[in-house]
Design brief:
Distance between the termini: 37 Å
Helix content: 25-40%
Number of strands: 24
Largest sheet: 5 strands, antiparallel
Strand content: 25-35%
Low-confidence stretches: 254-268
Shape: flat
Radius of gyration: 26 Å
Strand order of the largest sheet: 14-13-17-16-15
Number of helices: 18
Length: 539
Amino acid sequence: MIGLCLKDIACKEGLHLGGSASLRQAVELMDSNGKGVVAILDGAMPVGILTERDIVEILYRGADLNSPAINFAKRDPITISADKTIGYALNLMVANNIRRIILTDDSNNFKGVITQQDMIKYLEDDFYRSTIKIRHIRDNIRPLISITPEDSLIDALKKIAENKISTVPVIKSSKAVGMITEKDILKIVRSNISLNEPVLKFMSSPVVSVGMEDSLITAVRIMNTKKIRSVVIEDQSGNAIGIITNRDLINNLEGDYTAFIERKLRHTRDILNLLPEMLLEIVDADREQLIIWANERAVKKFGDGIVNKPVTRLIPHEKWEKIYGTLGRFNKVEDIKVKKDEEIYEISGFFIKTEEENCGGKIQLILRDITDEVKLYTTDPLTGLYNRRFLNEFLHKELELSKRYNRQLSLAIADIDDFKKLNDTYGHVAGDAVLKSTARVMLKNIRDADILSRYGGEEFVIVMPEIHKEMAAHAAERLREKISMEEIAIPDGGRIAITISLGIASFPEDGDSSVDLLIAADDRLYKAKKEGKNRIIFS
């Protein structure tokens, strides 16, 4: 379904207003169309866009609803051709962190709007395989932000506006008893209901929920069936612990990004100019490779003087020889890092053979500026350990080496037991002290060849090259014992002891990709927690 044409699923009626329309008219139209969006047109051409979130923020600021809507609309909205595919719209939404896109024809006339909720209906088959569960993406889901039944509607409006969220659950005794959404706020405002009224009278109930053990596809099907945009996540006791939305689902779609970009490169150059990366088209002419076209982002970065010049003006000659050789052997190159002056770029690309005279083919390169990421974000600022991004890159490379040289590799995911309780009891400053102490003890008790990273929250990942599962389990057990013997000083002058639980996975028996190994280790960590904590599970 990723290739389905947008014009076949988009909506047009009841989604646009003229430039003289008021905010009140925008609220009324948005409430009636159920799409949470209104396009503002100048004649037939879109010049602005208003969403439910914009309206919530406008109401929060106390704006007059009789004011012209265009004064508050986002100008020059992102638009795409109605002839493009769901796949293209999906990429654009994720890249720009937006939920709705305006569709136009070749003359930039309004042809409708596509929303994430529209696409979710057609993308069930494109989601992560059924083994991926809600808990596997928990790091990507923001902490629960809630209100109580006794709070007022203005309290709900404040929570939604200040936290830039679309839904706030109503919680009583840790259970979700209702929901207030941006859509609800619009209905309430349209009905001239006072925002001082209690939430209890207007919340949606009962609440639709999923568990941590449910799969992503379960959440998709529930949203499609119920025609809703979010569901509550509950723990085993039925307590609300988070929310998963359409945006979370879209951001966790399965797909090979590189292959997706390859399909994009077959489109016209105006499409390429919309992509967030810098792109170059290079002709392989005799003994040199000339840049014949660069998209707008590349021209802005390097200047239009790079066109019709050898690619070695941009990429150092020695590095280009390696890239060109790889392209010649495999017709593609992926994630090659190149330093130019003081900046670092990650390069991927494709070699496309042609039948043109004096031309061996064309090369299309994608450049991503990773200077800040490399310089600022390879380590975790609290513990000094490698961060998640660095870990993922290192693990991918180590796996490739293990495959090439028929070597074993193991990894462990370690989690501090009862860390939330520790934070609640002693405070977050004490929690930080525990994280730093745990990191220090771990670093002292792993091999020089191992890589330790803080993977998120109280989770750590240890990559152990060239050792099998039993050796990894032995090393993890030694680490678990060292941690349990440590007395950690906390800011109030006291000392506390902690324990950790670990899950272990190994290549090749538990999978041949970093995702497979991390999921297997996470499953075993979860089992270790269920079986009493302070233990290791490796099978």
